[in-house]
Known about the structure:
Elements: H1 2-5, H2 21-30, E1 40-41, E2 54-59, E3 62-68, E4 87-88, H3 91-102, E5 108-112, H4 117-126, E6 132-135, E7 147-148, E8 153-157, E9 164-172, E10 177-186, H5 195-206, H6 209-216, H7 221-230
Parallel strand pairs: 3-5, 5-6, 6-8
Antiparallel strand pairs: 1-4, 2-3, 7-8, 9-10
Helix pairs in contact: 6-7
Amino acid sequence: xxxxxxxxxxxxxxxxxxxxxxxxxxxxxxxxxxxxxxxxxxxxxxxxxxxxxxxxxxxxxxxxxxxxxxxxxxxxxxxxxxxxxxxxxxxxxxxxxxxxxxxxxxxxxxxxxxxxxxxxxxxxxxxxxxxxxxxxxxxxxxxxxxxxxxxxxxxxxxxxxxxxxxxxxxxxxxxxxxxxxxxxxxxxxxxxxxxxxxxxxxxxxxxxxxxxxxxxxxxxxxxxxxxxxxxxx
Length: 233
């Protein structure tokens, strides 16, 4: 389904490691996902074919560099990787030199994270050249602009479970960003559906009937856990 959505860039979150990094690599390669991960140290012979630390995108004469990262620690103490094969470095130490290199190559630098708002704020202070941090993990929804005046960094979190799309508009005057705006778009049932994705969704959900009821009840983790545990093995 992620492949069918045709994302320009994706990063691994904490649940993407739950079946081990080897399985994650298999899925990333199978579906050709444009994975970005600057703080991953992949084992020999296990690096995904499409993974890179960053990508540069041209937008009407403006170059935008997007750096991807993943979650370094569970509880900020141990790594998420469940099979012990992947090493995940701290974000700031992994991307600091990369940000410096991209300063000459890109007009705007974006950092994608999944470490929570508090850690995003620390990253913004440590990496002031980053113009925008697109974050997650806390399931927060920022409906108004969060802009750090000191570092000139926008931090945006856009909710959970695909309920919203966050749109960040940066106005470029040829030399610098002169305006920043954010808009939250709610995903509603009356929106036009992609027939291909809808068919895939129904196919997958039909194999997990308890999960379907869970979704209907608002994707509450406790409900999901109870329903899935009660399903026959």
